[in-house]
């Protein structure tokens, strides 16, 4: 095949080489900052930058003794957990009528529902701040930050789950209804097992968005702080390799979470397949 291409275009080999080099450069451009961040987390110098003066694990040890970072991390995880729960439940519930209800103008409704994605976070932060303080008379706090981040994450959940619902074959539900399954049983035993990969993906997306959200949170969190706000505040005094160590740990924790989720989904699929095969064997033996 390659020889045929070279017959048509004598420069085909050169073109493939240039494209390969270009692709490698793109990947280097994307991942080089991450590699630099990881490398500098082991630097013995207090100044972030090259050349490295030595190798040390001291900055990871310092993290375990920094109560401020631990508090910011606890706040971040607390907010992210609630955002995942609320955004996933609200977004999944909203995806069903968006896909299955006979809406007169579905495209317009979809744009309206996903409007927070297109509005700048600066405006959303100011709007939630004005609503909570001037109208509801609530002071900026972690619960208000949860509400603000849920507003941002829910449209992404709606898009992911609705796209999964659009590809779902409704004949499975009709077959379950013919066998006597009510609406609740059809939802629990038919719909959820078929769309759960989309729900899990949406939940992971909501968690990621909450983990690094800064603009909206900065307006409505009050005196508390999450990790992005803590890291931003450190820019005034100079970032130390301690922040690089924290970012490195978060990176590997995120990769581990993705790996565990993928293994869990694969395990669920394998167990479900075994259960189906067992039921088929029992039917054949009967």
What can you see in these coordinates?
The structure is a single chain. The protein has two domains: 2-40; 61-273, MetI-like (MetI-like fold), CATH 1.10.3720. The protein has helices at residues 2-8, 12-40, 58-63, 67-100, 106-113, 115-118, 121-135, 142-166, 171-178, 183-211, 215-220, 227-234, 241-285. The mean pLDDT is 80. With 286 residues, the chain is an all-alpha fold. α4 packs parallel to α8 (142-166), α4 (67-100) crosses α10 and α8 packs across α10 (183-211). The termini are far apart.
Please provide a brief summary of the model.
The protein has 286 residues and is mainly alpha-helical. The chain has helices spanning 2-8, 12-40, 58-63, 67-100, 106-113, 115-118, 121-135, 142-166, 171-178, 183-211, 215-220, 227-234, 241-285.
Oligomer: single chain
Biggest sheet details: none
CATH superfamily of the largest domain: MetI-like
| Number of discrete helical segments | 13
The structural class is mainly alpha
Mean pLDDT score: 80
Share of residues in helices:
over 70%
Q: What would the CATH topology of the largest domain be?
A: MetI-like fold
Measured distance between first and last alpha carbons:
54 Å
What tags apply to this protein structure?
single chain; 286 residues; mainly alpha; MetI-like fold; 13 helices; 78% helix; 0% strand
């Amino acid at each position: 095949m390659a020889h045929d291409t070279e017959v048509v275009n004598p420069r085909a080999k050169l073109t493939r080489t240039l494209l390969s080099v270009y692709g490698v450069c793109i990947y280097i451009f994307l991942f080089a900052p991450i590699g630099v961040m990881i490398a500098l987390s082991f630097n013995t110098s207090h100044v972030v930058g090259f050349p490295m003066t030595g190798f040390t694990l001291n900055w990871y040890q310092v993290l375990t003794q920094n109560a401020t970072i631990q508090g910011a991390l606890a706040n971040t995880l607390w907010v992210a957990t609630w955002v995942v729960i609320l955004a996933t439940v609200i977004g999944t519930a909203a995806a069903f009528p968006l896909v299955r209800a006979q809406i007169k103008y579905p495209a317009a409704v979809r744009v309206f529902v996903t409007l927070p994605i297109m509005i700048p976070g600066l405006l959303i932060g100011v709007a939630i701040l004005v609503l909570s303080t001037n109208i509801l008379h609530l002071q900026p706090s972690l619960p208000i930050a949860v509400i603000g981040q849920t507003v941002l994450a829910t449209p992404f959940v709606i898009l992911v789950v609705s796209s999964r619902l659009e590809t779902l074959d409704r004949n499975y539900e009709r077959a379950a209804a013919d066998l006597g399954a009510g609406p609740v049983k059809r939802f629990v035993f038919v719909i959820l097992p078929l769309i759960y990969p989309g729900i899990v993906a949406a939940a992971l997306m909501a968690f990621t968005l909450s983990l690094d959200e800064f603009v909206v949170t900065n307006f409505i969190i009050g005196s508390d702080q999450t990790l992005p706000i803590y890291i931003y505040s450190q820019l005034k005094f100079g970032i130390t390799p301690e922040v690089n160590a924290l970012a490195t740990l978060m990176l590997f924790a995120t990769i581990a979470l993705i790996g565990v989720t993928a293994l869990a989904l694969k395990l669920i699929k394998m167990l479900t397949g075994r259960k189906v095969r067992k039921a088929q064997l029992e039917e054949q033996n009967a």
